[in-house]
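Record passed on here:
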Amino acid sequence: MSDDDAGDVRAPERRRVDAVVVGAGFGGMYMAHRLRGMGLDMVGIEAARDVGGVWYWNRYPGARCDLMVVDYSYAFSPEIEQAWTWSEQFAAQPEILAYAGFVADRLNLRPLFRFGTRVVGAVWDDDERLWTVTTDRGDEYRATYCVMATGPLSIPKDPRFPGQDRFAGDILFAAKWPHDPVDLAGKRVGVIGTGSSGIQIVSEVARTAGELYVFQRTPSFSLPMRNRPLDDDHVAEIKRHYPAIRRAAAASALGGVRAQSSRPFFSLPREQRERLMDDAWQMGGHAFLGTFSDLLTNPEANEQVADFVRRKIDQVVADPATAERLKPRGYPIFARRPCLDTGYYEAFNQPSVHLVDCLVEPIRGLDETGVMVGERAVPLDVLILATGYDGLTGALLAFDVRGRGGRSLADKWRGGAESYLGLMMEGFPNFFMVCGANGPAALANIITTNEQNVDWICALIDHMRANRLASAEAGAGAEAAWMRTVRDLAEQSLLSRAQTWYVGANVEGKARGLTMYTGGFARYREHCDAVAASGYDGVAFEARA
């Protein structure tokens, strides 16, 4: 399969439809399934050549989900739950993509989508109460409803370094990895970026590269994943108990079944805390986050856990100077998305793996031979850019969206993303977001959030059809009140105290602020359910003519 995003040759379409769904990841696939089941004529638009969302593109070495498969899978279909069998506790990219394809085949979803196609505009017609959605293939769809299921991480950053075009080697992007095999064995490889993707890449590439240079500006806290295969007995247990597992996930703050605690850190004496942290380290995964209740609200507790992880780095990394440079400082642990690894810190014990501290030796640019840092040049054959995404808002601002009176979404969000429940916005009728800004987004299990969002939107559309309502949008007062809730909760959390994509700090010129609901998935769902039960209080409707 080609690694470009061009679709097959086809004639442009001009159609009147009930709904347009943008994105064929897990949110878009479920939305397409639901809308078709409601009898709506819908069309899906997807830039990639197939379903899978971010997992279609993220094919880099070591790519793996950091959520357990019992959480990172659909709950809406018992048939699919029983028919699909996962092989590991944390699935790798090929298995996740195969799962997406399996679901698409089972539900016959691919005919609903136009692949290899990008949306370039979505404009609301005040008179006809329709969206006109246009694409780079010349398509024009006039739709009653426009649903953005683009996910929180779908627009990669495209960093440009001075002299980048002069580099004679290969430049690879983690977020758009080639579909053909890439042989890095014996080569001089550089990796820029030490977030989740960069850490996974380093752990894998270190095994075969001739020399590996890790260019680090801000070190991340990384915890051992401790992945393990799922044996037949455990798979049978999971399948037998899926209903209870799903109920527990839906009722949790995380939208998943990771352990949670009501125990504050300082409620236990030091030796018991140390024992519990050691147990969490040995358990692996995100066990730390379920060990104490106040790690994202109590700075002193947070710092003690951070110092525990720093001590573990000392134990793993043989060279004290390298270990010190790998230790994150200056921001709370878990305020950046916690990374899970398989041998990341151990990789720096290999003589072929080199850490370049870009706070000491800043990247000056590239020349023909490699990367220039400080007063020296690092010769490379391959440079991998794992520099992240324009999170939460990037996908919606990547094309021209215009609501009532021609107002652009870029104008509405100039000072930061605003929405109601993360699902809809004032001034943009019948424009819905799945896993949008100001919902739980990346702070909860994304597939649980996707399913809840889709079901809520579909229930609202059903309500509109039953009551002959032409349009629905957030009321200005309801949107403002929800944003106060989001901001008040954010002020109570340590999440906003790190310069991360969570707060827009990784994109130059982007408005800063934590545009995610931090009250937990269960409370968020209660908010949404209460709005629906009230007859959609806070939603402004217009009747059909």
Remarks:
- The CA atoms of residues 416 and 511 lie 5 Å apart.
- The first strand starts at residue 14 and ends at 22.
- The mean pLDDT is 94.
